[in-house]
Amino acid sequence: MTAPASPTTVRGETLLDVDHVVKHFPITQGVVFKKKTGAVKAVDGVSFQLRRGETLGIVGESGCGKSTLARLLMRLEKPTAGRATLAGRDLFAASGGELRRIRRNMQMVMQDPYTSLNPRMTVGDIIGEPFEIHPEAAPKGSRQRRVQELLDVVGLNPEHINRYPHQFSGGQRQRIGIARALALRPEVIVCDEPVSALDVSIQAQVINLLEELQDELGLSYIFIAHDLSVVRHISDRIAVMYLGRIVEIGTEDEIYDRATHPYTQALLSAAPVPDPDAREHRSIIRLRGDVPSPADPPSGCHFRTRCWKAQDICAVQDPQAVPRAADPHPSACHFAELRPGP
Amino acid sequence: MSQHAVRPTPASPTPPGGHLLEVRDLHVEFRTGEGVAKVINGVSYHLDPGETLAVLGESGSGKSVTAQAIMGILDTPPAHISSGEIRYSGHDLLGLPEEQRRQIRGKEIAMIFQDALSALNPVFPVGWQIGETLRQRLGMSRADARRRSVELMDLVQIPAAARRLGDYPHQFSGGMRQRVMIAMALAMEPRVLIADEPTTALDVTVQAQIMDLLADLRRNLDMAMILITHDLGVVADVADRIAVMYAGRIVEHADVRSLYRAPAHPYTKGLLNSIPRLDQRGGKLSTIRGLPPNLMRIPSGCPFHPRCPYVQQVCVDVVPHDLVLGDGRTSACHFAQEVRDDRAG
C-alpha cells in the first residue's frame, strides 16, 4: 500500500483545527406548525487541534456529545455554529467537489460491526463502494486488485472478496470496516467506539491493527471511546468531555497522572482496575446523582451540580479550558488542582 | 433489612457440608435446524452463603446459559438440558415440578439482567411493577405493596422514592432503571442473586455506584451472589472466587487473588495479558490468536488448543480433566502447573 498524500510533511503540524463548534438539536412542539420550545445542547463550544500522525482520544460518558462531535466532523450533521478546517480547507463551508475532496481525506470507522455493513453486499462491494463515489481514487480496472490489497492490509484473506458480512466474526467485520475507511487513502480516520462491541481477546487484535496502520501509513486518529484503559493505550493526547464541552485536554500523562479537573479525577477513580490486590488501596470518588439533561444544562460550569468543590462562582462564571497553576495543561475548572496522592 | 419479616424459613436448611447452590456436570445443547450446538459441556460450580462468585467469559462461552438453567428460564426449544444436576439447599431443581420451581424462582434465587430498559415493562409505572411481585407472591394488599415498594426503592437509593413510584421506566436514567430492577429482585428477599452483566450498559461512574450498591446489599442482606461478566476489572473489584468459562466449560476456577497473580490456564493468562491497563501506556498488546470455536464443531481434545501457545500433541488428542492445584484451585489444562509457574508468558 502506498503512503498517504503528503509523506514529506512533518509530524506535529496541525491537520484538523476545530474552533468553538456548537450543535444544538431543536426540541419542537406541534405537528403542522412546529414551534421550537428548546434545544438539546449536544455539543456546546468544542475546540481542539489534531496534529499529523497523532491519536487524539475523546472520552466521556453517554450523552456527553462525543458521537455528535464525530458526526459533525464527518459532515453528517450541520453545526449550529463554529469553524473547522482540515488541512487548511474549511470543513463546514465546503460543498460539491470541495466537500468530496475533504471527505476523501477523512473517513470513519463505526462502533457496531453488525449494523454498519450492508448484509446484501459482498465484502468486495462494501470496501470498493468508496471508489464509485470517488472514481479518481482507483481506475476501474484496478479496483478489484486494490480491494484485495486492502483486505490483506487489515489481515483478512484476499480470497474472501466475494463473501458476505454474515460469514465473518465481529472482529473480522470490524477489519472490513477499517479496510473501507482506508480505501481512499485518508489522512484522518474518526473511530467511534471501534472496539467496544468486541470481546476482550479480539479487542486487542483490532487495537494492534489500528496502531500498525498508523505507523505504516502515517494516519491521524480521532479515537472516541468510553473505556479509559483502551484510550490511554492508544492515544497521544486525550480530551475529556462532559455535557457537550471539553473539560480537560492534555497528553496521556497529563490526563492520567496529573488530571486537575474534578470530573476527570472522578472518572479515572471509578474505572475498575484488573488487580484484586488494589481493592483496598483504591479511593473511588463517588459522584452524586446523574448527568443533567443536555436540554437544560446547569448555568456556569456544567459539572457544578455533581462537584464536591463547587462554590458560588461556579454557577455564575463559565470556567474556560486554559492552563492552570496546578499543571500547565488546559482544564476548565475554577479550582483546578492535582488530586492528593493515595 | 426491614420490618417486614417476609422471608419464610427455607424449605430445608443447607445440609451440613453441602453447598447452598451447586451445579454438577451440566450439559446443555441447542437443537437447531442447522445442527446441534453444544453450549454447556460439563459445567460444575458451587456457591456458599454470603459469597460472591464471578463467572467470567466472552460471548458464547455459556456463562449466561448456565444462569438461565439455574433459574429455569431456558428457552426450550431450542435449549435442552441433556444431563447434569442443579441442587439448591438440598433440592434437585431439575427434578422439581414447575409449580415448586416457581416457588424457588424469585423467592430463593433472583436474577437481574444487563439491559434494564428491555427487562422492565414500558407501559406500567415502576412502583406497580415492583409491587406486582409482592401482591402476587406474598398476597399483600395494594396499600402494603405500595409501602413496601417505597422501602425497596429507598433501599436501592432511588432519591425521592415515594414521588417516583408512579413514573414509567423511560423517565429514569440507565443507572436508576438498573436500581429499579435490583429493587424488584430484592422484593422477595432472595438468598441468591444472579447478576448477569449488571453494569455493562452503564457508564463508569454509574457502574461504580451500582457495584457499590450490590456489594452493600449482599453484605447487609447476607445474600450470595453470582456475578456474570466479561470485565476483568469488575471481577477484581468485587468477587471472592472466579470461574472462567470457554466454549461451554469452566477452564479455570480459583480465588480471585491467586488467579490474577498466577493464572493456571493459557486462556485466562491470554485474557489478562490482552487488556490495556489504566496505569500503563502503550506498547503492543499481546493477543490470543484466532477466534472462539463454533459450538457446532468444537475442536477435539482441549477446545482451546487451536489458539493456545502451549499446545502439544496431547492437547489435540485428549480432553483435559480439571487438574487440582491446591487451595481449591482447578485448571482444565494438561500443563496447568507449567502455565501457572511460567511468569514470563
From TrEMBL, chain A:
One of its GO terms (biological process) is peptide transport. Keywords: ATP-binding, Nucleotide-binding, Transport. The keyword Ribonucleoprotein does not apply. One of its GO terms (molecular function) is ATP binding. The keyword Magnesium does not apply. Residues 16-268 form the ABC transporter domain. Signal peptide: none annotated. Coiled coil: none annotated. Belongs to the ABC transporter superfamily. This is Dipeptide ABC transporter ATP-binding protein.
TrEMBL record, chain B:
Residues 23-272 form the ABC transporter domain. It is found in: Cell membrane. GO terms for cellular component: plasma membrane. Pfam families: ABC_tran, oligo_HPY. The keyword Cell membrane applies. SUPFAM superfamilies: P-loop containing nucleoside triphosphate hydrolases. GO terms for molecular function: ATP binding; ATP hydrolysis activity. PROSITE patterns: ABC_TRANSPORTER_1, ABC_TRANSPORTER_2. It comes from the Bacteria. SMART domains: AAA. Gene3D superfamilies: P-loop containing nucleotide triphosphate hydrolases. Keywords: ATP-binding, Cell membrane, Membrane, Nucleotide-binding, Transport. Coiled coil: none annotated. This is ABC transporter ATP-binding protein.
